[in-house]
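Listing S7. Sequence submitted for prediction.
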Amino acid sequence: MSLSVLNVDAQIEEERKAIDDVDLELVALIRRRLGHSLAIAQRKAELGISIYDPARERAIVARVGPEYVRTVYRAVVEECRRAGQAATADRKRIGTRR
């Protein structure tokens, strides 16, 4: 293996480490977002308001940038909504309120 290939491998590993760090940050931010989504879902359930608000979701997705980002963001928004729906359904099923 030539020296230039070894340097490229070191550069690749450095970039991969940077990606790993970004991934950890993204996961932390998604968890933070989910916490807020669950709080909103609980409050909406208490008020008898539908958790699903298609206009709000469209507005959120529209503001995040290029299509490839919107595609990922749609998935995040949908999963947060599903988690909120599941959490409120579980509370209703067992008859508890927080």
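Caption to Listing S7: primary sequence and predicted structure tokens for the chain studied. Residues 89 and 95 are 10 Å apart (CA to CA). The first helix runs from residue 3 to 47.
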